[in-house]
Amino acid sequence: MTDSNVPGMVPTSAVTFIETEHGRLRRKQRGIGMKDLKAARKHGHRRNGRPRANGDPTAIYTYKDIVYIVNEATSEEITSYTVPLKLDCVPITAKMQRDHDDAVVKIQSNHDAWLSNTVMVVDTSGSMRESDVWGARTRLNASWIAVALDFLAHRLETGSAGAMDVISIVTLGSKAKVVVREQPSTWVLYNRLIHICMQNEIPAGGHGAYMLSLQKAEELLTRNANASCALALSFLSDGKPSDHCLIKALTREQCSEMLTNRVGELAKKFGRRLTFVAIGIGSSDNFSTLKAMVDAASDYGAISTFKLPSMTSSDIGEAFTSVAASLTTTQTEMTNVNTSKQSRVRSVLRESKKKAAIPISVVSKDEFYIYDGAKRSVYKEWFEGRRRRTMFETVQLQHPSAWYVAIHQEAFGEGAERLAFRFYEIAKDMRTIVGHHMVAKESRLVLEEHADERTRKAFVRTFCETQQLARRLAEEFNEKISEMPGVDKGTPRVAFLDCSIYQLDDRNLGRQSVLVEERLDESKWHKWNANNGYVEGKKTPTFTAESMHSALAKLDEMDLNIIEEGSEESDGEEPDEDETAPVAFTPSEVAQAFSHFSYGATKRKRLVCDLQGVYDEPNNVLRFSDPVIHYYNILREDRRMVHGRTDRGRKGAGMFFSTHQCNPLCKLSMGGFRDNRREGHGDRNRKQGQR
């Protein structure tokens, strides 16, 4: 229906429209343009509104997602807003309700069964009543929509969450209230959140005190001591904390410092096991405390992010989707491929990265464990014919003046599989550091319930073998590109750090074997790719069962095309030196090409990735640390995690190639592998024929 006073043939720009200060403010807050309101009046459905106080009639026009209220007598705008998103509950069967109730009982009685523990803090202060979010009645309404749809429903629909993924929700206001306490991730909980949202069950009002909510959240996160449980804390607010209004003795700055320190202590305890995401709604000037909280969590190794979405329900939802994605990644890296169970993370404290980056010349017994009689060995590998031989050879400490070694009591770095501690060789005075600054690496996960020295040595051997294989492939890659006329001599080479094994006699833990390597300059640290499909400069991909299937299908197709059709990257041809000028490739191009090269050089059985380290510019070398190798052999499908827990087999290779974009160095370095690939393809056909 169109307004009789606004004929359909009248151009939208000619529709009478008189701005008001109040109306202009609301349009600015809600992202609505003047043209949107003219279109609503021209094309929208009209109904009578309440008369103004002076008796002037009003009309309400609804068009698409816009509601426009106008004074009919004067044509002045009164206000405008977007139509709130209406959510429907999911039908719940009797079995779904029973399963939910059973899960609630199990969650309370068996903490070891928890797979993840998520606590969400949602701001319910008075400013959350603002109606400036596109697609929602208020900021608070938009928050509940995002929690329900973009966190819970997203995880349920993708299969990344189940009943043992526990959720709690705490309000942020003058009082902190737990509105959802340790509930299973089910559609029953989803319906509960929809009811809160649609019925405006929790109205906004009062101050926005952070500390009370953070204390409640901490209680919920730490109540379960299960170290196999991934943790997530999200903190959504639309402004600065107002704790100073409730705690009169403290200034705003002092309250902010307390909050930052509190988050830092959480991250110090949980490290990488904790995902901390702060989400700001509204003006970017109000979020200095939230950003400081994120920085504090990151400084102690937590996976932390600050999100500032635009004022739309969809963007706020994407912020919560990122919480879901990060939590899923944490669960995945803690999951044992062979047993499908999550492994326990060792209970250690983390050291501030900022503090660890400060150079020191002496160590303190208050912060370091100091060991006498440490023995150092290096991993040796050689071939007798086709048979590979290995051994650990005992050698001297690295510095001639070293008498002792010192290892920091807290980890300053944490990866998916290893913890990193500051490590030094020290002089006879048991204080003075001699030689290079180094890093000691230990397993991040509890290897076994009662791991002995033999188990730890197996962990060390796997690391050394992986490092040595990566080093051999790096040497082969360097040699190959050095011989190519199309590659300029200024192209960087690649190398992996040498590692040593130090045996330490600990009075409490017994003999310990730790990996030690040179410490690189963290200020120059760079990550070129990862073992989950991440490539520098791109967003980390999220793999569902469907997308993983597609990635593997793409990998199979790529292998088949290389062999049966031939390709530029496998024909072994090199550019004519007279026709093509040598190209100096960038460090990034070299890193990605090396990963691709490793796949062809090992007959499509291994792929080296998770390339991280520093670019040593004076020596023009990429120095990598802690590589990941994905191994898959069609004839030995029973062999899994050959190169440690981060070895994802063919799935890992599929993740890499799903995001990898070949550069010219990939094609040059892959030349000559065609015959090897044909051999590998024959193995695949024979295996498939046996099936």
Structural overview:
It is a single chain. The chain folds into 4 domains: 12-82; 116-333, 3-Layer(aba) Sandwich (Rossmann fold), CATH 3.40.50.410; 353-473 and 496-522, 2-Layer Sandwich (Phosphorylase Kinase, domain 1), CATH 3.30.200; 526-690, MHCK/EF2 kinase (Protein kinase-like fold, Alpha-Beta Barrel), CATH 3.20.200.10. The strands form 5 sheets. Strands 11, 12, 13, 14, 15, 16, 17, 19 and 20 form a 9-stranded antiparallel β-sheet that branches. It contains 17 helices and 25 strands. Helix 6 packs parallel to helix 8 (252-270) and helix 13 packs across helix 17. A hairpin with a 5-residue loop joins strand 6 (165-172) and strand 7. The relative contact order is 0.07. Helix content is 35%, strand content 23%. Residues 1-5, 564-573 and 675-691 have low confidence and may be disordered. The protein is globular. The protein starts with 20 loop residues before the first helix and ends with a helix. The chain is of the alpha+beta class and 691 residues long.
